[in-house]
Amino acid sequence: MSAGRVVIYGGKGALGSACVDYFKANNYWVGSIDLTENEKANVSIVVPRDAPWSEQEGTVVSKVGESLAGEKLDAVICVAGGWAGGNAKKDLAKNSDLMWKQSVWTSAISAAVAAQHLKEGGLLALTGAKPALEGTPGMIGYGMAKAAVHQLTRSLGAEKSGLPAGSLAVSILPVTLDTPMNRKWMPDADFGTWTSLDEVAGLFLKWTQAQERPKTGSLLQLITKNGVTELIAAE
């Protein structure tokens, strides 16, 4: 018997892989959704990379349904995304388009999955970004996309959003996650201010199990100092 069922959108990325491993270790059935397969997941749904948004949504929603065979999900967790820098002078549309696909498409598709397949009182977790609470002149496309995820979270946390009754819609707003790639690109940074992947996965597990849940619609900044992370809700 599994403890429950969760799907991780972005299940092959650094944080997504950590979430798949963490939930598996806690006896959950885990589905991964990504552009490539995660062989550790119970089911791995590979999204057609070049398909339009609506087609991606249709594919993912129906494949999740097939894999559940009538069961419901305890959580839908979207940790897909990416980063691109750049201001308005160069490649604004190109960078913004990429960020939109990586963050907004995935978050919206996750919401559609949750609306169809999440159980009442289940968790929908998305990934915003603390810098996008303000202007992001050095990464405009990224800031726009993450701000859209924040808006989506607020909407999903309101009444008549289409999510099941009693569900929790929330976004985590990390500053920097402690991933191998980030260590490679920022070797001189203060890693004590970076949030560990297992810590984030642990938060998701707690909320999935209805422990220490924040208010629905919350944007939760993950502020790490000296290796200790606190959650601060953005106004």
From TrEMBL:
<dbReference type="GO" id="GO:0005737">
    <property type="term" value="C:cytoplasm"/>
</dbReference>
<keyword id="KW-0783">Tetrahydrobiopterin biosynthesis</keyword>
<protein>
    <recommendedName>
        <fullName>Dihydropteridine reductase</fullName>
        <ecNumber>1.5.1.34</ecNumber>
    </recommendedName>
</protein>
<comment type="subunit">
    <text>Homodimer.</text>
</comment>
<dbReference type="InterPro" id="IPR002347">
    <property type="entry name" value="SDR_fam"/>
</dbReference>
<dbReference type="InterPro" id="IPR036291">
    <property type="entry name" value="NAD(P)-bd_dom_sf"/>
</dbReference>
<dbReference type="GO" id="GO:0006559">
    <property type="term" value="P:L-phenylalanine catabolic process"/>
</dbReference>
<dbReference type="GO" id="GO:0004155">
    <property type="term" value="F:6,7-dihydropteridine reductase activity"/>
</dbReference>
<keyword id="KW-0521">NADP</keyword>
<keyword id="KW-0560">Oxidoreductase</keyword>
<dbReference type="GO" id="GO:0070402">
    <property type="term" value="F:NADPH binding"/>
</dbReference>
<comment type="function">
    <text>Catalyzes the conversion of quinonoid dihydrobiopterin into tetrahydrobiopterin.</text>
</comment>
<dbReference type="GO" id="GO:0006729">
    <property type="term" value="P:tetrahydrobiopterin biosynthetic process"/>
</dbReference>
<dbReference type="InterPro" id="IPR020904">
    <property type="entry name" value="Sc_DH/Rdtase_CS"/>
</dbReference>
<dbReference type="GO" id="GO:0070404">
    <property type="term" value="F:NADH binding"/>
</dbReference>
<dbReference type="Pfam" id="PF13561">
    <property type="entry name" value="adh_short_C2"/>
</dbReference>
<comment type="similarity">
    <text>Belongs to the short-chain dehydrogenases/reductases (SDR) family.</text>
</comment>
